[in-house]
Amino acid sequence: MKTVLASALLLGLFGCSVAFPIPVPFPFPDPYHAFCGTIWTFATPCAEVSTTIVNEIQALSPEYMLISATPLTIKANHTSPDGISVQDITFSLSPTILTGGCRVSAKSISLGITSPLDDGLNYCNLYKLLSASGLTLSPGFMEMTNELACLGYGLSKCDI
């Protein structure tokens, strides 16, 4: 009887994690690559946010290159002005039900083997697109990140 009760208890505890998976907003990349992950929220619909980001990537060509764009995912590359370093950039958009706005999970990962502390290069790649597009002035804009999710965030000095 105790075995059946213990099994039911464990199934209940672990079965819930299958039904309600724990969200992982920032996948941890290879430790030899600098990276940055951040979350932005807007009171603006995702279709408008997506279009604005894509237009800004295209406007900042050839520094930024659009790889692919769907309504909820944007992929691009950033190449440093000296042409030495390249970063892979991804924006994942999801509508927010309560406000009719948009939640954007943005990440930038250096493709070459680099020091994990990049003085905020990956953060600045993301923020430059956001700032230049005017989205930082959008209603309901909020940014959430920290030094664990975005290496070098505290050291970043972005030239916009």
UniProtKB/TrEMBL annotation:
It comes from Cyprinodon variegatus. Keywords: Signal. Residues 1-19 form the signal peptide. The keyword Signal applies. This is Uncharacterized protein.
